[in-house]
Specification:
A hairpin with a 7-residue loop joins strand 3 and strand 4. A two-stranded antiparallel ribbon has the order 1-2. Strands 3-4 form a two-stranded antiparallel sheet. It is mainly alpha-helical. Helix 2 packs across helix 7 and helix 6 packs antiparallel against helix 7. It is built from eight helices and four strands. Among the domains are: about 80 residues, Cytochrome Bc1 Complex, Chain D, domain 2; about 90 residues, Cytochrome Bc1 Complex, Chain D, domain 2, CATH 1.10.760.10.
């Protein structure tokens, strides 16, 4: 009897990894909440960018890096698509600690072996939350949180996909679907088993502008910020593209008029 029970248990555990084989676990089509930056004339919502940065800083940055983004890119005073003033950017950068480099003695660590650190400056990039990949995996049960610098460009579906993943938790799995140990059910993720726990909860942050911090609002804001992080010069690109199109239209008109003038006598 004990052997039979033991064999049954072995059978159950062996079947668990393939328990979802009979279910189509293709991700659901992403949600389409609508974005201010969508379309050829879309622009970033500055208020949403500031709120999204707050969500990233207070929530996402505990696990996810933003390695490709420098602090000075946040500034609207340098002619880019930033959304903070220079003094604000300096204060934000100073709130982070970055490697200090060799001191006057050529040392990079103190007497206890701890790396020397200094407050950040606008020229620095956002420091990662973990020292290396091994430390990141150890803190996340073996999973490696992806860098978010270009996540909206690197994933099919872009902002819609990231928004759907962030808001796709807390749903009841369908009958017959097994949520694996250490995983979470998310129907917008391929396979439906995702290592990331639900990142957002209502009122997790307190917005300075008084906006209600619902999960949907925070997700919309942080995805807006991450889209900016992936393409901080989008507005410039669209302005230049619009100008080029106007020039080409005007140039085509001049060519047509010149053609009519040159060939008028022949006709």
């Amino acid at each position: 009897m004990r052997f039979a029970r033991f064999a049954l248990m072995l059978g159950l555990f062996a079947a668990a990894p393939g328990a979802n084989a009979a279910i189509d676990t293709s991700p659901l089509p992403p949600k389409t909440p609508g974005w201010s930056f969508g379309g050829p004339f879309g622009m970033y919502d500055r208020a949403a960018l500031q709120r999204g940065f707050q969500v990233y800083k207070e929530v996402c940055s505990a696990c996810h890096s933003l390695n490709r983004v420098s602090f000075h890119a946040l500034s609207a005073d340098n002619g880019g698509d930033g959304f903070f003033t220079d003094p604000q950017v300096k204060a934000i950068a100073a709130g982070y600690k970055v490697p200090a480099g060799p001191n006057d003695k050529g040392e990079t660590v103190d007497s206890s072996g701890t790396p020397l650190m200094r407050p950040g400056i606008p020229a620095d990039h956002f420091p990662p939350p973990f020292a290396n990949e091994q430390a990141a995996r150890t803190a996340n049960n073996g999973a490696l949180p992806p860098d978010l610098s270009i996540i909206t460009k690197a994933r099919a579906g872009g902002p819609d996909y990231i928004y759907s993943i962030v808001t796709g938790f807390h749903q009841k799995p369908p009958a017959g679907f097994t949520v694996l140990p250490g995983k979470y059910y998310n129907p917008y993720f391929n396979g439906w088993n995702i290592s990331m726990p639900p990142p957002l909860a209502a009122n997790q942050v307190t917005y300075a502008d008084g906006t209600k911090a619902t999960v949907d609002q925070m997700a919309h804001d942080v995805v807006t910020f991450l889209t900016w992080a992936a393409e901080p010069t989008m507005e410039d690109r669209k302005r230049i593209g619009f100008g080029v199109m106007l020039f080409l239209i005007a140039f085509a008109g001049l060519l047509y008029l010149s053609y009519r003038r040159v060939w008028a006598d022949i006709h």
